[in-house]
Amino acid sequence: MDRTLQLDHFHEIQQLFRYHYKNEWVSQSFINRHTRLWIQAFNKLVEQGFIERKKAENGFVYRWSAAYPEV
Q: N or C: which terminal CB in the chain sees fewer CB atoms within 10 Å?
């Protein structure tokens, strides 16, 4: 995966959780509408512990668990 594209996806995902979803749990279905490369970046954030995942009735739910950088 192109490193620049991956960093763009990391930033986009962080911004989604920070400003759109805030501290809410998000269902797995929101992932499915993105590209394969976006999903790979998302999964890498889950593996690294930036995004928390827990089992729900219909699959998994996700929420940002790391501290946001100071602006």
A: C
